[in-house]
Design the sequence.
């Protein structure tokens, strides 16, 4: 049996779903696993998924900007927030151009460092002051 105060709180609680508009503006970075264990076929499947996802996003220079990092032995920026921040179609095309050059190992920490230091740090190309950042 539920105590009355819990039942009342549950009955009166309302959830307001968030939309993309609630989260904008945002600077986002996708991290793709380019390690040797992925293999070219899996890497390309991830790229296909990410391209489709990018096409659903409201990418615009004043709303959502997107960059990408490839995680492998020597993680690197695939594209920055300036080049990925024009439209969802442009972002999808940039993702398509990322090549699989397998590294020997996954370097998750290094990839996150690259995202933080080269894409999300103040003064990085396309990075906006006071705008939230998200890494996928």
Sequence:
């Amino acid at each position: 049996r539920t105590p009355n105060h819990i039942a009342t709180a549950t009955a009166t609680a309302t959830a307001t779903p968030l939309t993309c508009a609630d989260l904008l503006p945002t600077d986002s970075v996708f991290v793709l696993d380019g390690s040797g264990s992925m293999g070219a076929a899996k890497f390309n499947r991830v790229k296909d998924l990410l391209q489709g996802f990018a096409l659903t996003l409201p990418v615009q220079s004043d709303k959502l900007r997107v960059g990408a990092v490839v995680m492998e032995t020597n993680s690197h920026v695939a594209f920055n927030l300036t080049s990925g921040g024009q439209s969802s179609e442009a972002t999808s095309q940039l993702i398509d151009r990322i090549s699989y050059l397998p590294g020997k190992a996954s370097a998750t920490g290094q990839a996150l460092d690259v995202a933080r230091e080269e894409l999300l740090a103040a003064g990085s190309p396309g990075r906006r002051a006071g705008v939230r950042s998200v890494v996928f």
In short: The two ends are 42 Å apart (CA to CA). The beta strands are 26-33, 64-71, 76-79, 132-135. The first strand starts at residue 26 and ends at 33. Helices lie at 4-12, 39-55, 88-96, 108-119.
